[in-house]
Design goal:
mainly beta; 206 residues; globular; 1 helix
Length: 206
């Protein structure tokens, strides 16, 4: 019979059916949170598919009204799929059809059911910071060649859904977890209170 004396143990990691279960060891800090650190969130979503479509698309993706013709930055979507891998993200976007807004600055109607074009973007960096409450809120920043997205996010305890409240880089303030939870009324954009919904909801699948 062998006996181990654990004095400063922090974590026991148990493998069960391919899932990692974090078990707190007496005398150590609380390490039971499955999504309690940036590395745990990044490791969990690595190699998975994150899909947003239909009612999961917000009215203001990246802080821009989906019905507004914003030129190359127009945010009318049919479907968006993110594929994280090795701390990078590939985004495959199927745009929707923006009707009744032929010129930049015009406001029309985004038809999410109609697929107009396919776009793809590969990030150069992904950063998750300031995680709290088992992933209930974390700061999220992703950088692409020529543009970036930043904001705050959350992942549910079961690991089935991630919500990302994102804005184009340097276009918003009060959009981090220090200001409030995901979707909190704390954001200003272009010097005015932001009154839209920028919460992108993604289903997480293998």
């Amino acid at each position: 019979m062998r006996t181990w004396f654990i004095t400063q143990a922090l974590l026991a990691l148990v493998a069960c059916g391919g899932q990692e279960i974090y078990v707190e060891v007496e005398g150590g800090p609380d390490t039971t949170q499955r999504f309690g650190t940036p590395n745990r969130i990044l490791a969990y979503i690595d190699g998975k598919k994150l899909t947003m479509e239909g009612a999961s698309i917000p009215s203001h993706p990246n802080g821009i009204f989906e019905n507004l013709n914003s030129g190359q930055a127009t945010q009318c979507y049919h479907k968006v799929q993110m594929m994280p891998q090795a701390n990078r993200i590939t985004i495959n976007t199927q745009t929707g059809t923006l009707n009744g807004a032929p010129n930049v600055g015009d406001v029309g109607s985004c038809d999410r059911s109609s697929r107009a074009a396919d776009l793809s973007f590969d990030s150069t960096a992904v950063l998750i910071e300031n995680v709290r409450d088992n992933g209930a809120c974390f700061d999220f920043t992703v950088t692409f060649p020529g543009f970036g997205q930043e904001g705050r996010g959350s992942i549910d305890a079961e690991g089935t859904t991630m919500v990302l409240e994102l804005y184009f880089k340097d276009r918003a303030q009060g959009h981090r977890c220090a200001a409030g939870e995901v979707g909190a009324d704390t954001v200003t954009a272009a010097g005015a209170p932001f009154d839209g919904d920028a919460r992108q909801t993604y289903a997480i699948t293998e």
